[in-house]
Amino acid sequence: MTIRYVRQSTDVLSEYGDVSIAFTVNSKFNVEAIERGLGGWQLTEVLVEPACTKDYDEDNHERTTRWLRWDPSNWRVISAFNGDERVGGAVVAWKTPGVRFLEGRDDIAALWDNPSPAGLERTWDWITDV
Hints:
The chain is mainly beta. The chain has a domain at 3-20 and 59-114. Helix content is 3%, strand content 43%. Residues 118-130 have low confidence and may be disordered.
C-alpha cells in the first residue's frame, strides 16, 4: 500500500473532515528530559487501563468546517490518500489571530492531524515544501 501526500488549499476542509477522528486510546507516552533536555528526551510507552475512546466526530464544535471562523490564509493542508480515498492528513495554522493554541504569537504554529482509519498503519514521512 502506498500513501500519497498532497498539499491542498483550505477549500478542502469539509472533505478533510470526512475522515473519522474517533479512536481508541490504549497507551500514552511519558516524556522525561535527559540532562534537562540537553541530552535528548526519553519516551516511555505506558498502557492506559481501561482503554478509552475519543470520538471528536460526535461533537459538532470540533468539525473542521468550524475552523473557518478564523482566517485560514496562513494555513497549509496536507492530505493523505490511499489511491483515491482520503485516509488522513494534517493542517498547520500560524499567524492566525484568535486561535488560542497560537497564544497571539507569530513565531509558533498549531498542528491538527487527522488520524488514519483503524487497520491502516500510519507512517508519516518527512514532507517538504509545505
